[in-house]
Amino acid sequence: MTDSPLLRMVQTTPTCLWNDSADPKELAQAIGWGAVGATCNPVIALAALKADASTWHARILDYAADHPTATEDEIGWAIVKRLSVEAAALLEPAFERYAGVNGRLSIQTDPRHYRDTETLIEQAVEFSSLAPNMIVKIPVTAAGVEAFEEVTYRGVSINATVSFTVPQAVAVAEAVERGLRRREAEGLDISTMGPVCTIMVGRTDDWMRVSAERDQITVDPGITEWAGVAVFKKAYAIYQERGFRTRLLSAAFRNHMHWSQFIGGNVVISPPFGWQRRINASSIEPTHRLDDPVDARIGEDLYDNFAEFRKAYDEDGMTPAEFTDYGATRRTLRQFLAANTELESFVRDVTLPNPDR
Q1: What is the 8-class DSSP label of residue 288?
Q2: Is 234 a catalytic residue?
Q3: Distance (Å, rounded) from C-alpha 57 to C-alpha 63?
């Protein structure tokens, strides 16, 4: 499909496409649709390993043989690093073409360290050195916000993740600005850095639906599907007004608006591969909609009925100390932590197969 909506988007607007997967086959196809970036996290990595199980089984056994004292956890993370480096190699042409702003592979820090600033910093610096075009994902918890400034100062391009709200997006951008200014003050280069802040818009919607069920909130059908869109558009307006040098990234797709409503600005759209195929099979035109406001009635329904939306939408809706307690944050961290445990089990089934099966 040469004349796809995604390809037209990247050819006619400043909006960039990244692939929400590090699977080499999916990434190669997405590059054909104009993708200039990709991402990896515990859930994505596990899916990629399972999708090509025979290849990765052999690599796990080889690594275990070469590292006889390595734990299942250590083997699992070594394999995630290898997967990420191989995906990053596919993006090197875009990295050169965009002088570092795009063409990066997002590799996520260990979710178990979401409360530990120093370990997040240490791991971010390590992961950044795995390939020239790495961008490192750090969760937007209180500890993560503290890490953003320091790793940016050290020259690491960051992708803020586990992020769903305007206050999180602003805290990230402000921390990155502090790090960039420190580098500039010392004459250090920032021209090839490409920081982004993800807003997991679909998970913002999910949390509104969970809140509606929990708190017995009744609104018109479809209202909650606009929550992430409203948050992203408000954050984008703030970023433009204040000249933040971090770009926003839309992720965690639940409907086509998580693409179509953000077209036209200097932002990144990062759909899963399945959503890219659906978008390309659609008749939706990639026209500029990012500056179109959310219908006032929808915004009012969300704001008046959902305390959790007010926390997400108001710039002062939460302090950094409260980020980890936000429902969407807890839900997502728990999923990432579960995937990390499942990665260990995946390795265990290769290195120590169950004799009863």
Answers
A1: -
A2: no
A3: 10
Q: Evaluate the CA torsion angle 320, 326, 329, 333 in order and state its sign.
A: positive
Q: Which of 242, 42, 5 is nearest to 161 (CA)?
A: 42
Beta strands in 87-218 (DSSP E): 104-108, 134-139, 158-161, 196-200
Which helix (H) or strand (E) segment holds residue 305: the answer is: helix 296-305
Q: Looking at 221-326, which runs of residues are DSSP E strands?
A: 247-251, 268-269
- Mapping DSSP to helix (H, G, I), strand (E, B) and coil, where does residue 324 land? helix
Count of structural domains, the chain? 1
Per-residue model confidence as pLDDT tens digits over 134-182: 999 999 999 999 999 999 999 999 999 999 999 999 999 999 999 999 9
pLDDT at position 146:
97
CATH number of domain containing 61? 3.20.20.70
Of 25, 81, 137, 311, the catalytic one is 137
- Rounded CA separation 164/160 (Å): 10
Range of 162's domain? 5-347
